[in-house]
Hints:
543 residues; alpha/beta; 5-stranded mixed beta sheet; two-stranded antiparallel sheet; 7% strand; disordered N terminus
Amino acid sequence: MKPRSRAEAATAAVAPPGATARVPRGEEGRGRRRVAVGVPALVMLAVGLRGLDRNGMWRDEAVSFQVGRRTVPQIWRLLHDVDAVHGLYYLLAHAVLTVHPGEVVLRLPSVCAAAVTAALVAALGARLLRPRAGLWAGLLYAGTPMAGHYAQEGRSYALVAAGATGATLLFVRAVEGGSRARAWAAYGAVLALTCWLHEFAVLLLCAHAVSLALARAEARAWRGWGCAAGGVVVTLVPLVLVSRGQAAQVAWLRRPTAVSAQELARAFFGPSGAVCAVCLALVCAGLAGLVKRRGEITLVGVALPLTVVPPAVLMLASQVSPLFVDRYVLYALSGAPLLVVAGAERVAGAVGRLPLGGRRVPPRLAALAGVLAVGAGFLHQLPVLRADRDPGTRPDDLGAVSRVVARQTAPGDAVLFVPALARNAALAYPGAFRGLRDVALVEGAAGSGTLYGREAGPGEVRRRVARLDRVWVVAYPGLLAGRRRPASPVARAELAVLRRDFTGRKEIRRGGLTVRLYVRDPLSGPVSRPRSPLSGPPRPGRS
């Protein structure tokens, strides 16, 4: 009997018993694969570009923006103390913002990376199954609200997802291509670069090891993967050593629970209950193709570990030292649509054997039906995608805060940021704060090699505030209301003086922060200097 090609074997791996899998050949097959890869990329690009200008950045994006606008030596100095894990991304942001310093430009690399990821997901489906499966999987990825959300984030996570999915495709090629050294070197290089964008991408090695185990791979494949994995780990050691010393940055994280796992599953398979239920049912149908012939890697054998292993390992590790946030494993989302499509192919194979007017269902009709089904799911979740374009869905909106400050304050007014994190608004939108006196600041963020600048000590801050008769405060509401106790001694000193000697007069809440005017209480005693001419009518917004 004539041996099957790898494409035929891969298609048969998930095809229902008795079904005849048709593998496109020649120019026709290449044309279908190009369509299968290109269409999802274009759809993801359109989804990412729609509403990209939200006219406001939230705190993490603001950090990317203000750090990216620093010089390379200033970025290098910052990384010695904080955010080493994001160092490579900050250098990329610096290059991008050199072209044009704007929040839309900051987000464009994420949009492009998400489009590349959708194309790579499609390429995996087309390689391990057939072009129509790749088309369905790529479109599913593009229509997932979680993918659309991070496509518009000025952070590294969409780029990490693209790198991890590309590394997975190279992994499949290396296993199927006879484990040549060059193929494994390419795999290791891409994965190492991805890990330098975010170190938790190294968990992808665990997923690929499980895929090799499920395929019962030959020793040669294990040796090639082991050499590549060793190279990745060695190159990552310096970043790990530095970032361990900065672990205090994630001290706010809590241990993940079963609810965390459920929320992640809904993010991967659809926040809508109906969509999620259908997708999980198809996943169960596709699990029958998990293991096939010895040494044969299957679509489910790649997609299942990719989806499950990195989040599971990080959640388990976080029971000892909390490190889990869903965006840290965004790259695992790439496997979810492939799992759904594996089940959809089995269903399509069963339906294709049913007579339709005396004939079987044509393959093109089946492919179109799958696209329409994906489109229906996309329309069902469209309200979620639309709502996500609202800046109010982020933890805060520093653009809205800066517009309030620009309207309400006058040149020469004093301002306090409680805590120092709130100064992020001034660093991201300096025009709105131009002319204001930052009471607590000693040295700026870029010059001090910090994220938010270096502040005076608690005693000096008390003395500075004591010389004021009015001051604007930009703060998180929980601190001003007394529901939270600030961790910083400087912030505690600021709040203590404000509560003792000042009265809040005017308050505006925007974008998750409070802008409040404090005026000295007449009963608190005279100020230690003559009143400066800080008052005046509200000024127009600054550019």
